[in-house]
Amino acid sequence: MLDNKEIKCVILAGGKGSRLDGKGKFSQILCNKTLLEHVLFRLSGQTDNIAINFRDSKSSFYKDYSLVLDEFKENIGPLAGIHAALSDSIKNKKKGTQLVVTVPVDTPFLPLDLIAKFKNKIKSSLADVVVACSGNRHHPTIAIWRVSVIKKLELCIKNKVRKIDMFTKNLERAYLSWDVRNYDPFFNVNDLKDLNYAESMIRKNIIS
Questions:
Q1: Number of other residues whose CB lies within 10 A of the CB of residue 104
Q2: 3-state secondary structure of 180
Q3: DSSP assignment letter at 71
């Protein structure tokens, strides 16, 4: 398990789940556990410095973890969660946090070496952000960020930028790839079909 002072991991759990039942992705049930519980399980062996980002306190019932709420009241998408994660880490910078890993709550198959590989990559580069890739696709919400990018992020949000790629194109950006063998480790659940697929993969013991 990594040093919990230097790196904080924040789960972005504010998605509405509009293509499911609209109650929030974090509470969707997959094999008798919520999606949030699956993501917490995948991360818990990697670090004990985990926080959960919600849009507001109405969703915040996971009291065993640090909660990070969006500071922007309007719906600006995942950039709000990334901003909240960086802002919270800066406010608590006396704890030594310099890097923040973000992951979305709808990715139940996250790699068990995610944080270690992210740390090694960003430490060996001049990158402001390292973004996860798999199967020739990149996943902008799955990334490790230097907290120093927050001022640029706030400027982008002020200028109505809402896409992560539009923000990160102005940063020193690097990519880190994971193999796609029996499954995509960054598969995300968007609808009932995805939820059923994820359940079948888990029940077949394919996920490692």
A1: 25
A2: coil
A3: S
Query: Strand pairing partners for 137?
Result: 134
Q: Say if residues 53 and 69 touch (Cβ distance below 8 Å).
A: yes
Token digits of residue 136 = 């020739």
Query: Which residues touch 156 (CB under 8 Å, ≥6 apart)?
Result: 79, 166, 167, 170
Find the CATH number of the domain harbouring 66: 3.90.550.10
**Strand bridging mode 29-30 / 137-146:** unpaired
Segment 127-164, tens digit of pLDDT: 999 999 999 999 999 999 999 999 999 999 999 999 99
Domain range enclosing 147: 7-203
**What tokens were used for 160?**
């109505």
Query: Rounded to an integer, what distance in angstroms lies between the CA atom of residue 125 and that of residue 37?
Result: 32
What does the pLDDT read at residue 56?
79
